Amino acid sequence: MVRMVGTVVRGIRTPIINKGDNLEQIVPDCILKAAQSEGFTIQDRDIIAVTESVVGRAQGNYASVDAIAEDISEKFGGDTIGLVFPILSRNRFGICLRGIARGASKKIVLMLSYPSDEVGNHLVNLDQLDEKGVNPWSHVFTEKQFREMFGSTRHTFTGVDYVEYYRSLVEEEGRECEIVFSNNPLTILQYTKSVLTCDIHTRARTRRILTANGVEKVYGLEDILTRPIGSNGYNEEYGLLGANKATEDEVKLFPRDSQLLVERIQAVMKEKTGKNVEVMVYGDGAFRDPVGKIWELADPVVSPGYTKGLEGTPSELKLKYLADNFFSHLKGEEQRKAIAEYIKNKQSDLVGDMLSQGTTPRRLTDLIGSLCDLTSGSGDKGTPVVYVQGYFDDFTK
């Protein structure tokens, strides 16, 4: 009998995860209880995905605003600090900015990209640029010039005026704040030679440009809190990248030791079920909101840790291409069987061409992590673990 169901994704409810909880036991136990109560069986190559949020919570990987300030002070001393290309987010950057401002001894020069930040949060829309004849790749604005040109703009979803909000955070810490709008990293060198790059996915390019053009001191968010300060958390690889607001005075950092965790969960599942499942830790999904134009990925990576079976990209043939080009003369069950046999053998001279006509070659962890992020959500679903079955099945199974 032909199977009528392909990939199945289940959000798995867990207890509230707190510091010190043992995820390598809690996660398998919750999945096995769900399997028993919902009537599904564990299979080889099923996927367990655990959100980075609960991994960080279990690790107690939190840091205070004061810890951020201390690290900034050690690195920049009495310099005026230029902050380049921060994203517009209260949860992601706002609280980090408080710590950075607290650690500065003089002045903060905040350089914002426009019309949007790198993940799509807009300060102005493209129509406004066109109406004003503004070229974002060459025009640089002071805050006064930007306000005169575009007025006060508020975020589509949050309603926040991020220019005013970021200024207020710096000034509340007793530091002077100057705001500049430019998409050229070199603009900041007109104000200071001491720079903290705050972008996420473009950070390597930004640092490379600054380093080649006379910056005297340059760090990135990934260089802040790479070691413990007092009893605070840290992340040796990502620093403040992936940090998220926990309280008004504390951030939760991106989790450490994710690779070790996924391998241990995999081993526990093998011991309990005899099955070889894949495991990953996931954060933000890599997808774009069609209304707000926001690219969701504010974490440095979708998955900071995953088992070996999740490496690489899918090797899939596009079913509709097969049906339209090679088996259009067949219908119904006869067509299905012919296509299934073709996929099973993959021996035709057309395979190379078919692969080029296949799915977009994104990484498995990016695809699966996005699927899981959409499944778990960021609210009150209470499903920080996602269980995926049949993801690697094709039309022959």
Can you summarize this structure?
With about 400 residues, the chain is an alpha/beta fold. It has helices spanning about 25-40, 50-60, 65-75, 90-105, 125-130, 145-150, 160-170, 205-210, 260-275, 320-325, 330-345, 350-355, 365-375, and strands at about 10, 45-50, 60-65, 80-85, 105-110, 140, 175-180, 195, 215-220, 245, 250, 280, 305, 385-390. The chain is about 35% helix and about 15% strand.
Please give the alpha-carbon distance between the first and last residues.
Answer: 10 Å
Helix content: 25-40%
Low-pLDDT residue intervals, each spanning 5 or more residues: 347-351
Whole-angstrom Rg: 24 Å
Number of strands: 14
Following the backbone from N to C, one meets helices and strands in this order, namely EHEHEHEHEHEHHEEHEEEHEEHHHHE
Number of helices: 13
Q: Which class of secondary structure composition applies to the elements?
A: alpha/beta
**Overall number of structural domains:** 3
Give the DSSP E fraction (strand runs of 2 or more residues).
5-15%
Largest beta-sheet characterization: 6 strands, mixed
Question: Can you list the strand order of the major beta sheet?
Answer: 6-7-5-4-8-9
The rough form would be described as: globular
